[in-house]
Design brief:
2 domains; TIM Barrel; binds flavin mononucleotide; 16 helices; single chain; eight-stranded parallel β-barrel; about 400 residues
């Protein structure tokens, strides 16, 4: 089989839903909701474009399940039926050409800049960037139960609005990650201590969602292969959590890694072995270990750029779905182009001013991809050659004036 044919094969999830192909657009926070977390026309236009692009699944940027707990200022917030109509239009636009739209559902916990009245987490462990992030208050038992129920309600809203799946955001240092890691979870009750106790939070979220959406609606989770910090969530722990999630009945596990403190999900600070470089994916070694432990469909995200490499990973049965995020912001039609044999890679020009100190700070990268999504939301084409200087100028103007 040709690489493009391998990636075009459909795949049936444990819940019985068939995904049309193996390429998934991973979550990218669009930061483009209207006031009050209402899904906007701009999101409809962006997803209409992505929907025409041919991906098997389009996973939304993180949608918040509680208006008191935003991760970023312009997040979509879904707590109840208030925005059901907007969600329905969003799904229709995204799914008109066969892609499945999944909602990534998140609570940021302690990892939110100063936009919430207060921060909550498993324990009162503050992020080291103290000027930006306040000290969180530990959640009470009752509040934990309310959040679990809230994740379930948001999933039900997605289903009611015609979305075809949901994903729990259990990665990148947000609330679920905070419960999983002994660095941020110091609790001594049933939600802390042993790994079994720390994993209770995502497992209870899963069970609550499943009860509400039924057996035939896809539920996935994105988790870290590791947090890549001393004393934090380790690879061995992640593998054990994958065992627990598999036994619970999860339909798809997406593997990523890192937190705000160590952005391994974007390839930062990880020394890659030559063999890993050839396989491109930042967590290529981990996925092989995960595959040996679970039959649950695996999605791997982070670093994939060459079609041959993606197809190899699928045909070696290391994983079932290839996830990409940043390339979708620049090449929205790339999946169609891959399938027709017109594209063999999705490399993106580096976003650089040429001044090392500025280029290493990371914000230009995020600004570049956010701007591409904004342009598509405004009905324009993305621009791979977007100037780093222009982004820097806009960033300074917005921050200082
Ligand atoms: C602008 C931007 C926003 C992101 N927002 C999210 C998000 O909301 N949820 C999430 O799980 N990952 C998010 N990510 C991480 C991506 O899903 C992905 O894990 C990462 O970009 C690595 O994949 P890539 O190399 O294909 O870009 C974001 C990445 C970028 C660039």
């Amino acid at each position: 089989m040709k690489p493009s044919e391998i990636l075009q094969q459909s795949f049936t999830l444990p819940c019985g839903v068939t995904i049309p192909n193996r390429i998934v657009k991973s979550a990218m926070s669009e930061n483009n909701a209207d006031r009050g977390g209402r899904p906007s026309e701009r999101l409809n236009r962006l997803y209409e474009k992505w929907g025409k692009g041919g991906a098997g699944i389009l996973i939304s940027g993180n949608v918040m399940m509680d208006h008191k707990a935003l991760g970023e200022p312009r997040n979509v917030v879904i707590e109840d039926e208030k925005y059901l109509e907007e969600l329905t239009v969003w799904a229709e636009k995204a799914q008109a050409h066969g892609s499945h739209l999944w909602m990534q559902i998140n609570h940021p916990g302690r990892q939110a800049p100063k936009i919430n009245k207060e921060l909550v987490s498993a324990s009162d462990v503050q992020l080291p960037m103290k000027g930006m992030f306040d000290r969180p208050r530990p959640l009470t038992e009752e509040e934990i139960r309310t959040i679990i129920d809230g994740f379930g309600n948001t999933a039900l809203m997605a289903k009611k609005a015609g979305w075809k799946g949901v994903q729990i955001h259990g990665a990148h240092g947000y609330l679920v990650s905070q419960f999983l890691s002994t660095r941020t979870n110091l609790r001594t009750d049933q939600w802390g201590g042993s790994l079994e106790n720390r994993a209770r939070f995502p497992l209870e979220i899963y069970k609550n969602m499943r009860k509400k959406v039924g057996p035939d609606f896809p539920i996935g989770i994105k988790i870290n292969s590791a947090d890549f910090q001393r004393g934090a969530f380790t690879e061995e722990e992640s593998l054990e959590v994958i065992d627990m999630l598999s036994a619970a009945g999860m339909d798809m596990i997406e593997v990523s890694g890192g937190t705000y403190e160590k952005a391994a999900m974007m390839g930062a600070g990880k020394k890659l072995k030559e063999s890993t470089k050839q396989r491109e994916a930042y967590f290529a070694e981990f996925i092989v270990k995960a595959r040996a432990r679970t039959k649950v469909p695996l999605l791997l995200t982070g670093g994939f750029r060459t079609v041959d490499v993606m197809a190899n990973a699928i045909s070696n049965k290391e994983l079932d779905f290839v996830g990409m995020a940043r390339p979708f912001a620049v090449y929205p039609n790339m999946v169609n182009e891959i399938f027709t044999g017109n594209r063999t890679d999705v490399h993106i020009p580096p976003v650089k001013t040429g001044i090392g100190k500025i280029d290493n700070m990371g914000f230009l990268d995020i600004a570049y991809y956010s701007q591409q999504m904004k342009m598509m939301g405004n009905g324009q084409e993305p621009n791979p050659k977007l100037s780093a200087w222009k982004l820097l100028f806009n960033y300074v103007r917005k921050t200082l004036f």
